Automatic annotation (TrEMBL):
<dbReference type="InterPro" id="IPR003439">
    <property type="entry name" value="ABC_transporter-like_ATP-bd"/>
</dbReference>
<feature type="domain" description="ABC transporter">
    <location>
        <begin position="2"/>
        <end position="227"/>
    </location>
</feature>
<keyword id="KW-0067">ATP-binding</keyword>
<dbReference type="InterPro" id="IPR017871">
    <property type="entry name" value="ABC_transporter-like_CS"/>
</dbReference>
<dbReference type="GO" id="GO:0016887">
    <property type="term" value="F:ATP hydrolysis activity"/>
</dbReference>
<keyword id="KW-0813">Transport</keyword>
<dbReference type="InterPro" id="IPR003593">
    <property type="entry name" value="AAA+_ATPase"/>
</dbReference>
<comment type="similarity">
    <text>Belongs to the ABC transporter superfamily.</text>
</comment>
<dbReference type="GO" id="GO:0005524">
    <property type="term" value="F:ATP binding"/>
</dbReference>
<keyword id="KW-0547">Nucleotide-binding</keyword>
<dbReference type="Pfam" id="PF00005">
    <property type="entry name" value="ABC_tran"/>
</dbReference>
<protein>
    <submittedName>
        <fullName>ABC-2 type transport system ATP-binding protein</fullName>
    </submittedName>
</protein>
<dbReference type="InterPro" id="IPR027417">
    <property type="entry name" value="P-loop_NTPase"/>
</dbReference>
Length: 233
């Protein structure tokens, strides 16, 4: 489970995250939505131990990220803009991650097969297309077979087949009792994937609840998003 409680982050006196509170539960895909600058990335960075909160807390199975033992086995993450060294081969990148968390090397081959990169495993990352880099990022997130996935724009750069694969995979992953937190700008895709939705804007949670609750009275998730958050941009 992911628990974010009264999370606040100041940057140079400005509140990027303002008393954000939500829970992402096991067996559910939680969509985390908001416009650029809404506070999504700051929240995820604090959750994953990359930034410190000014106040409040963000916990993964009741612990801060930095207190996790073998974190890749607890939570797998893909952050927009993050990636491996371009000159490194994909298989070497994943092998290094596996060794750092005492994950068997066999798992590297398994995740490369899972995301469709087995034939490109020995290519250098700099030769990869954007879609291939996204697949590699998803492979890295899955390396430790974690109970929790935190994914920021996971379908960015993927072709329709890749997008469909991600949608199906995340649904199956959550159905196995795991937790998925999915940050995205794609409303239709999120509506096809998420069970619960959290909408954030100007650093504050605008609304949250099940997909049915958030979209009640609106034609779509996109319509609900603009009605609930658009006026506050």
């Amino acid at each position: 489970m992911i628990e974010v409680s009264a999370l606040t982050k100041h940057y140079r006196g400005k509140k990027a995250v303002d008393e954000v509170t939500f829970t992402a539960r096991p067996g559910r895909v939680t969509g985390f939505l908001g416009p650029n600058g809404a506070g999504k990335s700051s929240t995820l960075r604090i959750l994953l131990g990359l930034d410190a909160a000014t106040s409040g807390r963000a916990l993964i199975n009741g612990k801060r990220y930095r207190d996790l033992t073998d974190p890749l086995r607890s939570v797998g993450a893909l952050l927009d803009g993050a990636g491996p060294v371009p000159e490194r081969r994909a298989v070497d990148h994943l092998s290094w991650m596996a060794r750092s968390n005492r994950i068997p090397r066999q798992r590297v081959r398994e995740v490369l097969e899972l995301v469709g990169l087995a034939d490109a495993a020995k290519q250098r990352v700099k030769t990869y297309s954007l879609g291939m880099r996204q697949r590699l990022g998803i492979a890295a997130a899955l390396l430790g077979e974690p109970e929790i996935l935190v994914l920021d724009e996971p379908v960015n750069g993927l072709d329709p087949d890749g997008i469909r694969w991600v949608r199906t995979f995340l649904g199956d992953y959550a159905a196995g009792g795991r937790t998925v937190l999915l940050s995205s700008h794609l409303m239709t895709e999120t509506a096809d994937t998420a069970h619960d939705v959290v909408i954030i804007n100007h650093g504050r949670v605008v609304t949250q609840g099940s997909l049915a609750e958030v979209t009640a009275g609106h034609a779509s998730l996109e319509a609900a998003f603009f009605a609930l958050a658009g006026a506050r941009w």
